[in-house]
Amino acid sequence: MSAIGIEAIGIGKRFGAFTALADVALKVAPGSMHFLLGENGAGKSTLVKCMLGYYRPDEGSFLVDNREVEIARPADADALGLGMVYQHFTLVPAMTVAENLVMSRADVPAVINWAQERVALEAFMAAMPFQVPLDAEVGALAAGERQKTEILKQLYLQRRLLVLDEPTSVLTPQEAEEMLGTVRDLAHGGSITAIVITHKLKEVARFADEVTVLRRGRRTGGGSAQGLTPADMTAMMIGEPQAPANPERLGAPGAEPRLELRNLTTANDGGRAGLDIAALSVCPREIVGIAGVSGNGQKELVEVIGGQRAPSGGEMLVAGQPYDGTRELAQARAVRVLPEEPLRNGCVPRMSVTENLNLRGFDRDAAGGHRAWLSRGAMVERAQRLITGYRVRAPSAEAPIGVLSGGNVQRCVLARELDGQVDLLIVANPCFGLDVKAVGEVRARIMAARNAGTAVLLVSEDLDEILELSDRILVMHGGQVVHEAAGPGADAQAIGAHMLGSHHSPA
Amino acid sequence: MTTAGAQAPADRWYPWRRALEGALAPMAALVLAWLAFTLFLLLLGKSPAEFLDLFWRGAFGSWFSLQNTLQRAAPLLLTALCVAIPAQLGLVVIGGEAAVALGGLAATAAVLPMLGAPSLLVQLVMALAGMAAGALWIGLTGWLRAKRGINETIASLVLTYIGLALFNHLVEGVLRDPASLNKPSTWGIEDRNMLGPIPGTDVHPGLILGVLACVAAWVLISRTSLGFAARVTGGNIRAAQLQGLPVHRLMIGACVLGGACAGLAGMVEVAAVHGRANASLIAGYGWSGILIAFLSRHNPLAIMPMALLLGGLGAAGGLLQRRMGVPDATVMVLQGFIFVAILASETLAGRIAWFQPRRTET
Questions:
Q1: Which CATH number is A27's domain given?
Q2: How would residue A41 be classed by pLDDT, with cut points 50, 70 and 90?
Q3: Is residue A360 less than 8 Å (CB to CB) from chain B?
């Protein structure tokens, strides 16, 4: 088994009137780490989907080991030894590693001779540079281990070129380093070629041999990673040589906590430990960042404060008064929530943009009184104001919000939740899946709310975002707050160690 | 209407195309169902043209047949609301049949302690009793769904059988009038307490109640904050929770309201037609209501023409049977085709690009 090289020549792909790729060239040497960079919608996914046979390019051709190949369907890519590790895991959580590996083969027999498979699997595992316990249930593995298992699966399937789609987005910094190091060792050892799709320029600087940058479906640059600075690559990605400026932090946090949680607990959920927060507070004009590996209680925390999940014990106080997330109290205390996956958690996809922009205020009139009859005029007026103010691009204000792009849905939810007086704002992964420009805009809005006196609780899986925005950082692990640090000048490595649960024996 | 201020040219015709899509989809489904039914008739060796002609004459063609149709449509308006109102919250409740029967029974039972009271008062109490019984029965389904997470479709179906068993147990037991020999019935409600027909017609006032209920339901759903909250909950319960909406109370409330409508249908059947509660109340009004609610895509205003169509089919059934020599179940076949075609048309919603908003983004 040895690595193969691939070359794409003049690839073009159109979807209706939309040009996803135009004359894109890509040359990946065997046994190299090739990073593919670009904003969302730049065409990275379309390019690798063409390469793997999920799409047929309208123009251009692929060469594998300098020979032209026809990749018309995924099976063709499979036969050539091209494989993909997806951003979201594709293993079956309830099955063991061994079962997942055997099941992934194309030629699984009707009756599996497990004794024989075990011997073969153990021999395979022994020959690998890293190991995962064969009998472990995948659902019980940590994210990093699962990602390793995904890679092992590809090697088990005799793949010789791997595309990794944002492989580190769900990993801690330590896990990410280890995983990318492993892939690089495999590549430089000559057993695979790796194409890595990423947004993280730090990873490029550390692990890339070669880089290709796409913007709006065209190749805008690339070459040897040594010859490119992060500023060069950012310029190629967003077209103008400027990274989003850090939004300015104005004024010091207030003293009186606006949100206080005391001994807050939730019931265990499907084997996962529930929340157990001894004390957490957020003051006015303060952003408290909650860092943590996904699945350590952050989601539950947001759900409890947002009223989507009932706590099993403890106290939740807003402005010193008990709070339970009901509409009356949320309106009285000016509490707003910017949930993760806004379309799934914060919008009604089949209702119009206008209606979705009015979910907070449809039952209140201008004086704050209760409105029993809907006012179409007031709803349209508010929607127009927010659409213009937040530059939402929608085909029509009456279109279902579900047809909007992710960035525009996020702008809608942001506009709705930040409209009017906001005393407490809960934010969860606000920039997930947004492009560089939208990220800068969303972060600036959150900072502006903080500067205006809002208490902000920011839950994010993106440590860079937490480090950039927070006045104070808390780390969650296993449903508990295990570490606290001041935001400006925080030690990312120490935070990463606590995210991994090594707070008992610092790494 | 003003749309999207200072940006790219907005798609101003989209709301009209959406309304058109909403109207055309069930129409197309009706046409398809008719075409399939035409094939069925041809297989039987019958003339589709004759079927249409007889259907027209039996359902709408004369004052007599029109009144017959309206009479049949009246309870369907109310039982369709029993499906359409909970549907705003995304609940598929199919328990209308038992709510009609229990509503009728409760209305009859309410008369017993009030012998000699003024008719208007008795009628009012009957209506309230019927609505309360239906509301309780369907509300129980809503409660099970909201508080215990039990699938509301299964719960309402199972509760229907329990409700009908309870109805039969009472009608054949403690509430039975010993004089009713062949057809076990409760005591009558006294002739003077019967609802008279709408002046100038033979149609009972249930039709007016049904139309009023449909209009009121439409206003509630589309024009009030409560209805908006219900639609948000039906569209995405997680978003509704995040907005602090009382999703459980809304669910139970919608079921209570829908059940009250079906219970009222049962009361009208007793007070205007049968004069007593017996097996005639279990005539499939609840089941037909499900069909009508889906045909009208749970829009209370659309329920009115659809109830008329289904009422007409029922009214023409006898004539079709006698004159064409087709079995009574033929009408059921047509109903089945219509139901399947409507459900299939739902899956096409949003798939036809012409009806969709025009993207102005690159």
A1: 3.40.50.300
A2: low
A3: yes
